[in-house]
Amino acid sequence: MAELQPLAKTVQELAASNIKEVPERYIRKDSTLETSFPVLEIPTIDLQLLASSSTSREELEKLRSALSFCGCIQAINHGLTSSFLDKVQEVGQQFFALPSEEKKKYSREVGSIEGYGNDMILSEHQILDWTDRLYLILSPEEKRNLKFWPENPQHFREILHEYSMKLQVVLEVLLKAMARSLNLEENCFLNQYGDQATMQARFNYYPVCPKPEQVLGVKPHADGSAITMLLQDKEVEGLQVLKDDQWFRVPIIPQALLINVGDQVEIMSNGIFKSPVHRVLTNSERERITLAVFCIPHPDQEIGPVEELIDEKRPRLYKKVKDYVSLYFQYYQKGRRPIEAALI
Ligand SMILES: O=C(O)CCC(=O)C(=O)O
Ligand SMILES: [Fe+2]
Question: Which pairing describes strands 239-243 and 115-118: parallel, antiparallel, or unpaired?
Answer without folding.
Answer: unpaired
